[in-house]
Amino acid sequence: MVDASLAPAAIFWVVLRLAGFKGALVAALAWSCLATVRRLLRRERVPAVLVLGLGLLVLRTAVSFVTGSAFIYFAQPTAATVGVALVFMASAFIRRPVVERLAHDFCPLDPDVMGSAVVRRFFLRVSLLWGTILLVNAGFVLWLLVRTSLAAFVWERTMVTWALMGGGIVLSTLWFVRTLKRAGITVRFGGVPALAADGGGSERRAAFDGPPPGTSAVLAPPVDSSGQ
Q1: Helices 70-93 and 48-67, interaxial angle, to 10°?
Q2: In what order do the strands lie in the sheet with 185-189?
Q3: Distance (Å, whole) CA 189 – CA 82
Q4: Paired strand residues for 196
Q5: Are 163 and 29 in contact (CB under 8 A)?
Q6: Torsion sign over Cα 9, 160, 63, 47
Q7: Residue 204's beta-bridge partner residues?
Q8: Chain-wide mean pLDDT for the chain?
Q9: Which of 15, 150, 190, 218 is most buried, judged by most C-beta within 10 A?
Q10: Is 51 helix (H, G, I), strand (E, B) or coil?
C-alpha cells in the first residue's frame, strides 16, 4: 500500500513544489515505470491489469501535460471509480455479484459454502456496500478537487481514500465472519481446507489462504500505481 499510494503521492507533492505541475506529472509516470521495471528485473509476474493501468497512465499524463490541466489528470481516475461502483451495484441488482466472482479468484471456497443462501445474500449486500463506498469516495475526491489547492488535494485525496477503503475492509470482514457464524460455519484464515467437518460433523469450518471475500480482494479498483 505504501509503495502503491503513499510513496508516489509524496513524490508527486515534492516535485510539484520544486518543479511545478508538469514536473510532478513526469515524476509520477517515472515512478510507475520504475515499479514495473523492478518487477521485471526480479522476474516477478507483471499482471495484465498493471500493464493496462500503466498504459492508461501514460495517456492520461500526456493529455494533462499538453493541456496543463490538473482537473483532467485527477478527474479521469475519479470517473473510472464511479464506473466501477456502478458495475458493483448493477451486478447486485441482477443477482450476479462481482464480489462473488472475485471470491472465486482470490479466496476459493468450498462449493457447499458458496451455495449457501446466507453466503449468496452476503455477496449481494457487500457488492452494494462497496458500490456505495466507491461512489462516496469519488464524490469526496471530486469535491476536494474543485475546492482545495493542488498541493493540499494530493494528501487530502490519499487520506480520504485510505479512510474509506480501510473502513470498508474492516466492516466487510466483520460482516463476513458474523454471517458465516450465524450459518453455523466457523471462519479461520490460513490454508486449512475450505470446508471440513468438526467432530461429528455438526459444525463446519471455512478457511482461506487469501484475504476474506468482500474485503481486500474487492478493494480494487486496482490502486493507481502513480498514487494519484
Answers
A1: 140
A2: 185-189, 203-208, 196-198
A3: 31
A4: 205
A5: no
A6: positive
A7: 185, 197
A8: 78
A9: 218
A10: helix
